[in-house]
Specification:
Strand order of the largest sheet: 9-10-8-11
CATH class of one domain: Alpha Beta
Largest sheet: 4 strands, antiparallel
Low-confidence stretches: 200-204, 296-312, 314-322
Radius of gyration: 31 Å
CATH superfamily of one domain: P-loop containing nucleotide triphosphate hydrolases
Structural class: alpha/beta
Length: about 350
């Protein structure tokens, strides 16, 4: 995966690590020894992803590299061809994919035209499509076709007698999926006639006849986002996206609306502890919650000067006894307020002994 800056390399490396990927980084700030160890981890299979800048990626040779992803658009056609040439080496086939936001479409088209590369726009895969592809890879795993070795036969027979074939297959599937990162839904993009693309807003969810609200112990302060909360709820609560209604983000919590028909199934799936991944607690509410508007609340006084003749705010209140501001060198000066009648009394002095 190629990026244009070191900061982006560090950011993506941290995101991949948080999602359970074995990832290494290559950037100009690393020493030659650190780069060598990172490439060796890719060759040995200890790392699945390498996030690199263009400068650090010069001369990379990974024979079995099947995919190159341009997280940032390359600056010119030469850099595009150099990046893409890291895959498909020695007669093998490879895929070079560019991730382009709708507002960067024309720049990507110019770049590919200069590189004399035929353009083919595709939409990003959905979370369901990613899960389906993971299952296809599992079915095609070569370990399932390897013959049973002599030193494995006795233990395999013991497992079948104790647990049965279905239970062992289910355990195998769980172990395989536990190593994978949870897929996320991204913004839908419509491919238009002529090769263009247009970003679409997600359609409104249908209103439920009866619904139940839940509170999650994560909000804007914890960088909560619907794009990873929805797959988390579906996976942990045994529900589908269509059974999730409105999602209201608050500062320290998130309110989620569920179809009443799936509530019993959802509660049974999350268990009596009602705790999801990342230690997120779930609480069922009796009715609809009260939402706090984002950015609501009184704004603090900014302390800016106001035009002459306007009341001035002092001590948290507006005062109407403000006199027009005196001008100095053509600019308004400080406001003057009427002094209270009688003036300020001085405290009586204590007599000396």
């Amino acid at each position: 995966m190629f990026c244009n800056t070191r900061a982006t390399v560090n950011h993506l490396t941290a995101r991949f690590n948080n999602r359970g990927f074995s990832v290494v980084a290559l950037s100009g700030e690393l020493s030659q020894s650190e780069r060598t160890h990172a490439l060796q981890a890719m060759r040995d299979g200890r790392a699945r992803v390498c996030v690199a800048t263009d400068v650090a990626a010069r001369g990379i040779d990974l024979p079995n590299l099947e995919l190159v992803v341009h997280a940032d658009l390359p600056t010119n056609a030469e850099t595009l061809l150099h990046r893409s040439g890291r895959t498909g080496r020695a007669g093998r086939k490879g895929v070079s994919a560019l991730i382009v936001a709708p507002n960067g479409r024309r720049r990507a088209e110019r770049l590919l035209r200069d590189a004399k590369v035929r353009l083919e726009w595709t939409s990003p895969p959905s979370a369901d499509e990613v899960l389906q592809r993971d299952d296809e890879r599992l079915m095609a795993d070569p370990h399932l076709e390897d013959p049973i070795q002599e030193n494995e036969a006795d233990f395999v027979k013991a497992l079948l007698e104790k647990h049965g074939a279905e239970q062992i297959a289910a355990a195998f599937v769980r172990l395989h999926r536990a190593k994978l990162s949870a897929p996320e839904d991204v913004t839908e993009v419509t491919i238009q006639d002529g090769g263009g693309m247009r970003e679409e807003r997600a359609p409104r969810r249908e209103e439920f006849d009866e619904s139940v609200w839940f509170s999650l112990s994560v909000g804007r302060k914890q960088n909560a986002e619907p794009r990873w909360l929805i797959p988390l709820l579906c996976r942990a609560g045994d529900i589908t996206k269509r059974e999730i209604g409105a999602i209201k983000m608050q500062q320290d919590e998130t309110f989620v609306q569920l179809d009443a028909a799936c509530v019993d199934r959802f509660l049974a799936a999350i268990g009596p502890q009602a705790v999801l991944e990342r230690s997120i607690r779930v609480v069922q509410l009796d009715g609809a919650p009260e939402f706090a508007a984002r950015g609501s609340g009184p704004k603090p006084f900014a302390g800016k000067r106001r035009p002459a003749g306007k009341p001035h705010r002092k001590g948290g209140e507006w005062r109407d006894d403000a006199k027009p501001w005196a001008k100095k060198d053509g600019k308004p000066g400080k406001p003057k307020f009427a002094k209270p009648a009688g003036g300020k009394k001085k405290p009586a002095r204590r007599p000396k002994d």
